[in-house]
Amino acid sequence: MNKFQIVxxxxxxxxxxxxxxxxAILNSDAKKQADKPLKNSQKLDDVPCAxxxxxxxxxxxxxxxxxxxxxxxxxIVYSVEDKSSFxxxxxxxxxxxxLKNEMVLSLSGLDGDNVPPIVICANKSxxxxxxxxxxxxxxxxxxxxxxAFYEISCSTTKNIxxxxxxxxTELQSxxxxxxxxxxxxxxxxxxxxx
Length: 194
Fold this sequence. Notes:
Blueprint (H helix, E strand, L loop, with lengths): L1 E9 L5 H11 L11 E7 L2 E11 L3 H10 L2 E7 L3 H5 L1 H19 L10 E6 L11 H11 L2 E4 L8 H23 L12
Parallel strand pairs: 1-3, 1-4, 4-5, 5-6
Antiparallel strand pairs: 2-3
């Protein structure tokens, strides 16, 4: 069985554990606690696989590199009521790409264009009072960073399922690109061998 890891990153207090808990509930695994690994069966391209969801907090610097290097897809979470968490999104994305490219170059010799699926989530979107980051600011940042964007609410479950399904779809696409790259194909080459 193929194993994939989704890594949820962001500043302290933005709702990473709540998001993981909602993913667990969505996938009939409500008994899992937010601090324990979430393992879920899923199919990617009709191939059974296990999805593991891990959390990296801004204070977890010791585990950060290892978890990111093991990750296959990433969710960067910020809170719409916390400007500093929003300001840290680009840094999280840069760290993810740098660590993934470093690993790919050192282990496989493949090109360094290893951008895994990254989704930016603006949590606590159900809050009107105290909101300091608008939806358009989040959309603008995600456009600039070339990442998907969703406003979510872990308390109301708004868009939680949409984010999860987006990650599964992106993992399928990412997996296909990596297989093609390993087999010597590029996006410019035909999929048929000549």
